TrEMBL record:
GO biological process, one term: DNA-templated transcription initiation
Lineage: Bacteria, Pseudomonadati, Pseudomonadota, Gammaproteobacteria, Lysobacterales
Domain of life, source organism: Bacteria
Organism the protein comes from: Arenimonas terrae
Keywords: Sigma factor, Transcription, Transcription regulation
Protein name: Sigma-70 family RNA polymerase sigma factor
Family: Belongs to the sigma-70 factor family. ECF subfamily.
Record-linked Pfam families: Sigma70_ECF
Length: 184
């Protein structure tokens, strides 16, 4: 199975059409676990695991080709796509709550308690965007560990870094985000 996955990832890097449809079933359970970790961090956003996986798939389809070297690297890319979707979803919910799009709120008739959690997620995302200007690798480590729930070892494998580097970068990234969130 690893040979098949490796071959499919190579074909995906080349941009061969239809490869993603053969690749995703091989990692679908892993994608669901990853999505469950993301969704579990923000329960008030009322996202479901399957929806996050499907949105990730759609994002990958639109990209046509990715430079994923192995399963771990592919999962790190998927984790980043999931984060981007969840942040967009939180922005949309905040917009609806503030009345900028009352029609959608009236159609659904939902009063979802997302404000505090959505704002927190957007602040974390804003801190990460600021950190990306300083050190993109710190952002990738933070995404893998915080959003993806990957272990230090999995993060090291996914990003092609040593375990010690991941440990050091994780401490630096957490400190940066904490400082940004506590700043007035």
């Amino acid at each position: 199975m690893d040979d098949t996955l490796h071959e499919l990832l190579a074909a995906y890097r080349r941009g061969e059409p239809g490869v993603l449809d053969r690749l995703v079933p091989l990692v679908y359970d892993d994608l669901r676990r990853l999505a469950r970790r993301h969704v579990g961090q923000w329960p008030n956003l009322t996202l479901d695991t399957t929806g996050v996986v499907h949105e990730t798939y759609l994002k990958l389809v639109r990209q046509r080709a990715l430079d994923a070297n192995d399963r771990a690297h592919f999962m790190a890319i998927c984790s980043q796509a999931m984060r981007q979707f969840i942040v967009s979803y939180a922005r949309q919910k905040l917009t609806e709550k503030r009345g900028a799009n009352p029609l959608i709120q009236d159609i659904h008739g939902l009063d979802i308690p997302v404000k505090g959690e959505a704002e927190e997620l957007l602040l974390v995302d804003q801190a990460l965007r600021g950190l990306a200007d300083v050190d993109l690798r710190l952002v990738r480590v933070f995404e893998c560990r915080f959003f993806g729930g990957l272990t230090e070892e999995e993060t090291a494998e996914a990003l092609g870094l040593s375990l010690r580097t991941v440990q050091r970068e994780w401490m630096r990234a957490r400190a940066w985000v904490k400082d940004m969130l506590s700043a007035p």
